[in-house]
Amino acid sequence: MISKKMTNALNLQMNREFFNSRLYLSMAAYFESINMPGAAKWMMAQSHEETEHAMRLYDHLRERGARILLAAIEAPPTKWASPLAAFEAAYEHECKVSREFDEHMALAQSEKDYATSIFLQWFVKEQVEEEASADEIVQKIKMIGDHKGGLFMLDRALGERQAKA
Q: 66-93 pLDDT, tens per residue?
């Protein structure tokens, strides 16, 4: 049986993941508005992944017999000062999400909820990849600097991203 405290934590995280999906969708719209379709596609794929993350949490709660509580989703930001600022925001957000999953893992372990602990291991590993991916793009944009040609090439490369199956 999953505890009330763990249920509340996972419901909260599920709703956060739905917000995360909307955040990346908003970033996709931003990149479309500045004519960076590759970055928009990258962010759209990220948005889909975040929805999948929310549904993984939903399924775990359902399988454990917990009550699923959907909450109102706050509107995400819609503007960033630059492509760099948007990807820095994405990176910082992924670091925040990593800390959230670390807290959930600590709770699961403290409650000896081994099923949830095993379930959360996937998210902990996923967050390492998410942080690395966003940071890599931030570093590339910093390296490119004011060279529009480099940004154009990066945008093209970002457009090649395929959503995870």
A: 999 999 999 999 999 999 999 999 999 9
User: To the nearest 10°, the Cα dihedral for 151, 153, 159, 163?
Assistant: -90
> What separation in angstroms does the CA of 75 have from each of 16, 20, 146?
12, 10, 31
Those residues with Cβ within 8 angstroms of residue 158's Cβ, 6 or more apart along the chain or in another chain: 36, 38, 39, 41, 42, 137
Q: How many residues in the chain?
A: 165
CA distances 118 to 15, 58, 68, Å, are 21, 16, 20
Cα distance between residue 132 and residue 140, in whole Å: 12
pTM over cut 0.85: yes
Provide φ and ψ at 79, rounded to 5°: -135, 145
Topology of domain 4-71+80-158, CATH: Ferritin (1.20.1260)
- Helix residue ranges per DSSP H, 111-162: 114-144, 148-158
